[in-house]
Amino acid sequence: MESFNVLILYFKPDSKLGNGLGAFEAWKDVKKDESLDLFSHYMVYWVAGVKLIFIFLLLVILITGSEVTKVWSIVVMIISISTYFWKLHPIIKRLDKMNKIIPKGYSKTLGLMISMFLIIFSLALILYLFL
């Protein structure tokens, strides 16, 4: 799924699918100013690059990592995914409330989806540790 998001960010950032920015009204506004448009694209490609690094590191861990490394990777995944609720979720909720995201309610959908990832990783960790 994240690989799909990386492809969207690199090749179709205007998309409303996945992590595409077409859902944000402000994405259309930045295109009116060349410097803001360039800066926005720079940041989008930065995020895509970070996601790509993350994906490849996880693949290396899954293929070559020891059992201990894999367990700690799950712990780190839980912590890193949880940071979404610290800074990003409050912002997207405000944008949703201001009707700056299409479709309305997208912040709730995204919050639920990320919560599900946290639950799945947490359950996997608990099952591994106690079974």
Offer a few descriptive terms.
mainly alpha
**Broad shape:** globular
Distance between the termini: 28 Å
Mean pLDDT: 95
Overall tally of structural domains: 2
Question: Would you list the SSEs in sequence order as H and E?
Answer: HHHHHH
Q: Uncertain spans, ≥5 residues at pLDDT below 50? A: none
Roughly what fraction of the amino acids lie in strands? under 5%
Largest sheet: none
Helix share bin:
over 70%
- Number of contiguous helices: 6
Computed over alpha carbons, the radius of gyration is 17 Å
Number of strands: 0
Class by alpha and beta content: mainly alpha
Give the arrangement of secondary structure elements.
Blueprint: H1 2-11, H2 25-30, H3 34-64, H4 67-82, H5 84-97, H6 106-130
Helix pairs in contact: 1-3, 4-6, 5-6
Characterise this structure.
This protein has 131 residues and is an all-alpha fold. It folds into two domains: 1-64, no CATH class; 66-131. It is 78% helix and 0% strand. The protein contains six helices and no strands. It has helices spanning 2-11, 25-30, 34-64, 67-82, 84-97, 106-130. The longest helix has 31 residues, at 34-64. The chain starts with a helix and ends with a helix. The model has no long low-confidence stretch (mean pLDDT 95).
